[in-house]
Every structure is written in structure tokens, then in C-alpha cells.
């Protein structure tokens, strides 16, 4: 009896903390999303779906939040996976100094996102930033831009900075997947006269699919939850050009519109549930195929 309940006692503390700081606040947030909770009135009244109607009524501001979040998520997922796979394929071979290169590429991952944002806010400064100073020094002054204030470049700059920071994490996962592929497959393919493309298409890609599934799920979850890199670089500006869902939540709470802010959070919560369900189902299918 003692042996059977021993692990349960160890989990009580974690369960209590999880309930107090995640489950209960989540349900409270869902409830408040159906109310007119704000900083301008003392009472809180139930208003049904009015907050959600406000969000999905076609208001340009809220539509931009969703469009930017989806664009950011898909674009960064493709860039991080593509570049990460390319780097993993290179570093999987016995090139000189591969361990050093792995450390250098992974290093941005361990730097706090806010620090990265502040550094690149200085690097991309239109007058004194290193990027524009370098372009001017080599005679390419016409390429010097207002990277974080130009409405056509600000969002692209955020995507580029986020890709630079996160690609090392994806590379490590894919590199582990590559190293798990037995050498005998490559040897058999070489005996049959297969070139690199044949090996990539028929060996690497199918056997790397579980790792690619994991990285895709992680990229999508991170992309839909993005906040800090956007806040640090542009704070959603210029205008609404770089606003995402969580900066929108932040702005709504800053304006005292708590009901609308929690409604946006609830929408995000439902999106994450759908993504999580899809991810678990996809990974289960991959496991069945593997068996």
C-alpha cells in the first residue's frame, strides 16, 4: 500500500500549484470574457458574446492582430525549419570544428528574448545602428532603411530577428533526429548508387519526420504565443503594423478593457487547444506508421 501511494504524495504539491496558478485562473479568464469587466465601472455584468462579437465584427484592429499572428507563425515556422534542417545536414557530417559551430548557432537560444530585442533595436536603429552604418561604409547607403519604423519593413525585421534567435533550437532537434538514423541505410543507398538527393528523399526525410513533427508543433505553439520579441522591438508599431494577438491583449488591459482582453485570451486558448489536439493526433499517426 505504501509503495503504491508513495508517488501520489509527491505529486500533490505540483497539482496544487498547477490548479492555483493555471487551471483556476484559466477558468476565471473564460468567465470574465463574457462580462463587461473594465476599469471604468465598479460592477461586473454578464454580457454574453458581446466581447467576441467586438473581436470578430470585422474591426480592422482585431483582424490585423489575427492576420499578423498567423503570418508570423507560418513564416517563422518555415524559415526556422528550412534553415535549421540545412544547418543540421551540414553539421551532421564530420566537418572541422563542428562542435564549435553547433555552440555558436545555438547560443542565441539561451539569450533572453527581451535582451535580444533590445540589442537588435540598437543594431537596426535608422541613424546609429550597426546595419545602416555598415551599409553606408561600403557605399550602399541607398540600402540603409528604417528597419523598425517603416510599415513595409518592421514586421519582416521582427520575423528575421526571431528566426535568428530560434533557428539553433530547431537545428539541435533535427540534428538529434539525423544522428538517430542508422548508417546502414546510407551504406545500402551508396551501394545502389544513390546520390545525396535520393538519400535525402527516400531515407532522411521519412526517418526524420517524427523530429520534423515535433519542431512544427513547437514552432506553431511559439508563433501563436509570441509577445516579447514584438514588444521589445516595436511595441506593435508603427500603428498596428506589427501587432499580434498577445500584444493586443496587453493593449486592451492597458486601456482598462479587461473583458475584451480576456476574450482575446480565450480565443487564443481555444486556438491552442485545437493545435494541441491536431499535434497529438498527428504524432500518434506517425507512431503508428513507424510501428
Automatic annotation (TrEMBL):
Localization annotation: Cell membrane
Domain ABC transmembrane type-1 as annotated: residue spans: 66-279
Record InterPro entries: ABC_transporter_permease (IPR051393), MetI-like (IPR000515), MetI-like_sf (IPR035906)
One Pfam entry name: BPD_transp_1
Bilayer-spanning residue ranges: 12-34, 70-91, 103-124, 166-182, 203-224, 258-280
The keyword Transport is assigned to this record: yes
Chief location of this protein within or outside the cell: membrane
Membrane topology: Multi-pass membrane protein
Protein's UniProt keywords contain Nucleus: no
Keywords of the record: Cell membrane, Membrane, Transmembrane, Transmembrane helix, Transport
Protein family (similarity comment): Belongs to the binding-protein-dependent transport system permease family.
Record-linked PANTHER family: ABC TRANSPORTER PERMEASE PROTEIN, INNER MEMBRANE ABC TRANSPORTER PERMEASE PROTEIN YCJO
Name this protein carries in UniProt: ABC transporter permease subunit
Amino acid at each position: 500500500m505504501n509503495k503504491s501511494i508513495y508517488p501520489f504524495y509527491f505529486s500533490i504539491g505540483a497539482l496544487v500549484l498547477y490548479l492555483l496558478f493555471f487551471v483556476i485562473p484559466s477558468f476565471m479568464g473564460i468567465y470574465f470574457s463574457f462580462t463587461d469587466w473594465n476599469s471604468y465601472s465598479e460592477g461586473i455584468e454578464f454580457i454574453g458574446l458581446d466581447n467576441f462579437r467586438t473581436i470578430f465584427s470585422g474591426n480592422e484592429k482585431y483582424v490585423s492582430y489575427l492576420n499578423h499572428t498567423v503570418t508570423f507563425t507560418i513564416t517563422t515556422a518555415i524559415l526556422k525549419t528550412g534553415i535549421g534542417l540545412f544547418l543540421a545536414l551540414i553539421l551532421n557530417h564530420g566537418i572541422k570544428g563542428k562542435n564549435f559551430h553547433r555552440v555558436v548557432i545555438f547560443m542565441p537560444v539561451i539569450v533572453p528574448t527581451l535582451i535580444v530585442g533590445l540589442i537588435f533595436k540598437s543594431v537596426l536603429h535608422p541613424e546609429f545602428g550597426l546595419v545602416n552604418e555598415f551599409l553606408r561604409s561600403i557605399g550602399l547607403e541607398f540600402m540603409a532603411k528604417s528597419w523598425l519604423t517603416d510599415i513595409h519593413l518592421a514586421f519582416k525585421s521582427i520575423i528575421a530577428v526571431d528566426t535568428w534567435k530560434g533557428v539553433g533550437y530547431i537545428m539541435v532537434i533535427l540534428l538529434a533526429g539525423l544522428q538517430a538514423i542508422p548508417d546502414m541505410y546510407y551504406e545500402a543507398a551508396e551501394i545502389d548508387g544513390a546520390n545525396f538527393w535520393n538519400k535525402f528523399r527516400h531515407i532522411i526525410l521519412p526517418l526524420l519526420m517524427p523530429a520534423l513533427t515535433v519542431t512544427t508543433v513547437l514552432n506553431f505553439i511559439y508563433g501563436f504565443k509570441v509577445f516579447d520579441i514584438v514588444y521589445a522591438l516595436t511595441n506593435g508599431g508603427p500603428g498596428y503594423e506589427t501587432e499580434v494577438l498577445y500584444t493586443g491583449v496587453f493593449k486592451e488591459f492597458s486601456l482598462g478593457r479587461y473583458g475584451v482582453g480576456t476574450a482575446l485570451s480565450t480565443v487564443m486558448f481555444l486556438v491552442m487547444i485545437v493545435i494541441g489536439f491536431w499535434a497529438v493526433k498527428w504524432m500518434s499517426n506517425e507512431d503508428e506508421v513507424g510501428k
